[in-house]
């Protein structure tokens, strides 16, 4: 009888557990552990809905493509949940250049059009390339160089999901040619002719 009463006491005792969510207070400083939490009493259902990817992004740019991020900075409800998403829009000829996400794996779901995508392994430099159509899914392992390009004659779009609220991003072309990385060093470390390096710097806004 005492055992039964003890079990009832455990069941009826007030639960003590971590909060269910931590909607970010973005005005404070963020870090590896995330942002400070807003007061749960002031959080509403609207805080858990993001409408910023309803419409396509602006693809009138040098890559004929747009990425609309839905990271913790845009969607504070993601804070501490270990995930984020983004919308990709690629006009005909559009490309998301070779890039990496150092902090996350990525899953791509094509929502319209035809997208050719691929990644390069770090162990053997083997290349995996696939043509992905509406409703199909492709995965890109964390930290590997990968790309997406429009392989059709009409606009293409996709939704990508990451297992981090801040996956990080480094675009190879921009890292090499869109800054003040000296031309002679870029040429010397990539085996590209300096004239080509200067031309690419001119296109992407780099100097030096």
TrEMBL record:
Its main location: secreted. Keywords: Apoplast, Disulfide bond, Glycoprotein, Manganese, Metal-binding, Receptor, Secreted, Signal. Residues 1-18 form the signal peptide. SMART domains: Cupin_1. Oxalate binds at residues 101, 106. InterPro entries: Cupin_1, Germin, Germin_Mn-BS, RmlC-like_jellyroll, RmlC_Cupin_sf. Disulfide bonds join 22-37. Mn(2+) binds at residues 99, 101, 106, 146. GO terms for molecular function: manganese ion binding. It holds the Pfam family Cupin_1. GO terms for cellular component: apoplast. It is found in: Secreted, Extracellular space, Apoplast. Coiled coil: none annotated. The keyword Phosphoprotein does not apply. Residues 51-198 form the Cupin type-1 domain. Belongs to the germin family. This is Germin-like protein. The lineage of its organism: Eukaryota, Viridiplantae, Streptophyta, Embryophyta, Tracheophyta.
């Amino acid at each position: 009888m005492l055992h039964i009463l003890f079990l009832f006491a455990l069941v009826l005792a007030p639960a003590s557990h971590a909060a269910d969510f931590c909607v970010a207070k973005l005005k404070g400083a963020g870090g590896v552990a995330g942002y400070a939490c807003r007061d749960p009493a002031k959080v509403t259902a609207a805080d858990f809905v993001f409408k910023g990817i309803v419409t396509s992004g602006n693809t009138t740019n040098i890559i004929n493509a747009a990425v609309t991020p839905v990271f913790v900075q845009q969607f504070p409800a993601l804070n501490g949940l270990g995930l984020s998403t983004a919308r990709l829009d690629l006009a005909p000829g559009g490309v998301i250049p070779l890039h990496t996400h150092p902090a996350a794996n990525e899953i791509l779901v094509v929502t319209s059009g035809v997208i050719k995508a691929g990644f390069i392994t770090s162990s053997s430099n083997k290349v995996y390339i696939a043509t992905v159509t509406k409703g199909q899914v492709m995965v890109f392992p964390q930290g590997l160089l990968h790309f997406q390009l429009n392989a059709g004659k009409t606009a293409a779009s996709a939704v990508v999901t990451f297992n981090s609220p801040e996956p990080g991003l480094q675009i190879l072309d921009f890292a090499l040619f869109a800054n003040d990385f000296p031309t002679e060093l870029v040429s010397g470390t990539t085996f590209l002719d300096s004239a080509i390096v200067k031309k690419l710097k001119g296109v992407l806004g780099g100097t030096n």
